[in-house]
Specification:
The complex is a heterodimer of chains A (253) and B (377).
Chain A: E1 4-15, E2 18-29, E3 33-37, H1 44-51, E4 59-64, E5 67-68, H2 74-80, E6 82-85, H3 97-110, H4 125-137, H5 153-165, E7 171-175, H6 183-198, E8 202-206, H7 210-216, E9 219-224, E10 227-232, H8 234-239, H9 241-248
Helix pairs in contact in A: 3-4, 3-5
Chain B: H1 2-21, H2 23-26, H3 35-58, H4 65-82, H5 87-109, H6 114-133, H7 137-140, E1 146-147, H8 155-160, E2 171-172, E3 175-176, H9 179-201, H10 204-214, H11 216-221, H12 226-251, E4 254-255, H13 262-275, H14 282-299, H15 302-308, H16 314-324, H17 332-346, H18 350-376
Antiparallel strand pairs in B: 1-4, 2-3
The chains are: A alpha/beta (253), B mainly alpha (377).
Chain lengths: 253, 377
């Protein structure tokens, strides 16, 4: 089980005078849930943006199962098997929930471009069934014919998660998947992510909620001021003095 | 479920076909039952349907679609001049050449989105317009416009018939394309064009275009290369414009540069928004309404107005004519402008939104009266 899915080496990135990331190295093992924690502005989201091609790093490289991701376009990276949940949900507000989930399924089936202007969406029973199934998993099946834009923020996040899951990605990147959710919804999401883990999906998760982190993570990296200061198992990170100082501070862990 | 949808589509197409073919009947009471205007309604309907495939589905607002209309017209007239007066090759050439043009302009314009895309398309259309007036005069015949002449080669026609003294007219295998045959030819093409648009709207391709309009960033992270999708939509809608342009040449075989002017591009935007962008029927309604008003209102003058208000007392009659006069005749654009302002402010979804609101109101009233009836019983 020691296959490396994602290998981040020597990533550096600065915006103007701000060094956002400095010499960051990460190895994500297959089937594991790897959490990245750290205070606001530590560079966590920037790191994910580098991984999905949104930001080009100044130095270093990101390798995904042997493919180099640096310099690739977002759609190419997704087609290789990387899906991402954003900090502010990126969904299709004007489409129904069902269509929101069917569109990514088409991308998985057909690739980056296919001109199927004469098929009928309503005849795509297979994709539709799968979409309904996934919506049931995230608890949104009842609303599936409503417009995604009318959902609450927490529900939008779960919809976005469903949009990623239907692609069966080899690597799922989650940027604060429970932010803005009620305690009840957070727990549901944790259960869902545990279920995904049992199916063997590799995940990188950025999270502020320590309850979520310690419920899910196999491995934790602590990022502060653009550098990884501590890396290890949850128990080790929990007890580390530098982490307490840099981040956890007054938080009850 | 799939079967049910199928039946709905058939119903839609059936009703649509009947409505189009019966246009001479049901538009006659409105004073629009003559072939010239009917033909225009059908042609601009095609133009608007095509524009809606780009604007309604992807949200990319082109301000240069008149260029494709013009290219279609020029190509069709050249087909009449060089090959044959048969309209089928003319329509084919017009559509294909507009498609090639759209591919070139779209390839460059689609590097930007939003207002910058609109400005790029506008710039290209104005360039085409000015070129047609100046440098391209050998092809476009400049200000005079491209017309048929006695000395045209018409290679294919010459194989069968000798040139006669008069100018030939456009025909479909011997059937002259003037009057009602001309309208029914355009109507048949309108029906086919509408059918294609329905298919595109209901296809995975159409849903992906809508998703691009909704959130293009997400489309990228979902694994789609959005550029080719947009380009295909742009080319398809350009081809619809070319088709409409060539049909304009079928009804009247001449082509002028003014067909490419930005006002013509703006008109199709008005039609689409007025009717309801992103709806299947809306753009058609918008096109019909604008072309109908253009013909009817612009024909009014002071004398006609005096007749209309003849039953009023003299002083009131003069006052009414004074008030209404600026809105008719050459001033009918004022009516159009006012109508457009009202629609955009009160019905942003266009006429189709108005119809939807009305029908839901009626349904609510019926439901209430039925409930009251039950309670009474």
């Amino acid at each position: 089980m020691n296959d490396i899915v994602l290998n981040v080496s020597n990533i550096g990135k600065h915006f103007g005078g701000l060094q956002a990331l400095e010499n960051v190295n990460l190895q994500i093992e297959a089937g594991k849930t790897h959490a990245i924690i750290g205070p606001n502005g530590a560079g966590k989201s920037t790191l994910l943006n580098v991984c999905v091609g949104r930001i080009k790093p100044d130095t270093g490289s990101v390798k995904f199962l042997g493919d180099n991701l640096t310099g690739r376009k977002p759609h190419e990276i997704n087609q290789l098997g990387v899906a991402r949940v954003f900090q502010t949900p990126e969904i299709f507000p004007e489409l129904t929930l069902l269509r929101n989930v069917m569109v990514p399924a088409f991308a998985k089936r057909e690739g980056a471009f296919k001109l199927n202007a004469f098929r009928k969406v309503d005849n795509e029973a297979e994709v539709r069934d799968e979409a309904e199934h996934i919506l049931e998993d995230v608890g949104l099946k009842e609303q599936m014919n409503g417009l995604a834009g009318s959902l609450s923020r927490g529900d939008k996040r779960r919809l976005e998660l469903a949009m990623c899951l239907i692609q069966h990605p080899k690597l799922l990147l989650l940027d604060e998947p429970t932010a803005g959710m009620s305690r009840h919804d957070t727990n549901r999401t944790i259960d869902l992510l545990r279920l995904i883990k049992e199916r063997g999906m590799t995940k990188v998760i950025i999270e502020h909620d320590m309850h979520v982190v310690f419920s899910l993570a196999d491995h934790i990296s602590v990022l502060a001021q653009g550098q990884i200061i501590v890396e290890g198992s949850p128990d080790m990170v929990r007890g580390n003095a530098r982490v307490q100082e840099a981040y956890l501070g007054g938080a009850h862990v | 479920m799939a079967q049910l949808w199928h039946r709905n589509d058939l119903l839609l197409m059936g009703v649509f076909t009947l409505a189009v073919l019966a246009m001479p009947l049901w538009l006659a009471p409105f004073g629009a039952g003559y072939p010239d205007l009917l033909q225009k309604l059908a042609i601009y309907g095609i133009f608007a349907i095509g524009f809606n495939i780009l604007f309604g589905l992807t949200g990319y607002l082109s301000f240069g679609h008149a260029a494709f209309l013009g290219v279609g017209s020029y190509a069709a007239v050249w087909s009449f001049k060089l090959f044959t007066m048969n309209v089928l090759p003319a329509v084919l050439f017009g559509t294909l050449l507009a498609g090639v043009f759209a591919a070139l302009i779209g390839f460059i314009s689609l590097r930007r989105s939003g207002i910058y895309f609109s400005i790029l398309t506008l710039a290209f259309a104005q360039m085409s317009y000015n070129l047609a007036y100046s440098v391209l005069t050998p092809i476009t015949n400049g200000e005079t416009g491209l017309q048929l002449t006695q000395s045209d080669p018409r290679i294919i026609d010459r194989l069968y018939v000798e040139a006669t003294s008069g100018l030939p007219s456009t025909e479909l295998f011997g059937l002259k394309m003037s009057g009602y045959p001309g309208f029914y030819f355009c109507a048949a093409i309108l029906i086919i064009a509408f059918f294609f648009s329905v298919r595109i709207f209901n296809s995975p391709f159409g849903v992906k275009l809508l998703a691009i309009k909704s959130n293009q960033t997400r489309m990228g992270y979902t694994g789609y290369n959005t550029r080719p999708y947009l380009l295909v939509a742009f080319v398809i809608s350009g081809m619809y414009a070319g088709l409409a342009g060539s049909l304009l040449a079928v009804t009247d075989p001449l082509a002028g540069a003014e067909r490419m002017q930005w006002t013509a591009s703006g008109e199709v935007v008005l039609m689409t928004i007025l009717g309801g962008a992103g709806t299947l029927i809306g753009p058609l309604l918008g096109a019909g309404l604008i072309k109908y008003f253009e013909n009817v209102f612009s024909a009014y003058n002071e004398a006609v107005l005096h007749q209309i208000f003849a039953m009023l007392p003299d002083w009131l009659q003069s006052a009414m004519v004074f008030v209404v006069n600026p809105f008719v005749g050459e001033g009918w654009h004022l009516t159009l402008g006012a109508l457009f302002v009202l629609i955009v402010i009160f019905l942003p979804g266009g006429i189709m939104e108005g119809i939807r609101r009305l029908s839901s109101l009626v349904r609510r009233i019926i439901a209430r009266s039925r409930r009251d009836g039950l309670q009474a019983a």
